[in-house]
Design brief:
single chain; about 80 residues; mainly beta; Immunoglobulin-like; two-stranded antiparallel ribbon; binds copper (II) ion
């Protein structure tokens, strides 16, 4: 139960896409600051995307697996940074 990679660094305005693998049951993606929240899905190939228009560190979790540490973070920088 994990996001891969667990952390990415992107530049402002980048759209990040999470893709479900179909493994490990039902997952979702929920920002700790409630800025974004996906549906629950267990389907291989299901995707959720969010465009980051503000700088900062966005931590997120998979709610069904929060207790087992299924979490990640997106760091958004104003310039460069790469992915
Ligand atoms: Cu999960």
């Amino acid at each position: 139960m994990a996001f891969a990679p667990p952390a990415v660094m992107v530049s402002l305005g980048t759209t990040v896409v999470w893709e479900w693998t179909g493994n490990g049951g039902t997952h979702n993606v929920v920002a700790q600051n409630s800025e974004f929240e996906s549906e629950y899905s267990s389907s291989d190939g299901y995707t959720f995307e969010y465009t980051f228009d503000g700088e900062g560190v966005y931590k997120y979790v998979c709610e069904p697996h929060r207790s087992t540490g299924m979490k990640g973070a997106v760091t958004v920088e104003s310039q460069g940074g790469g992915v």
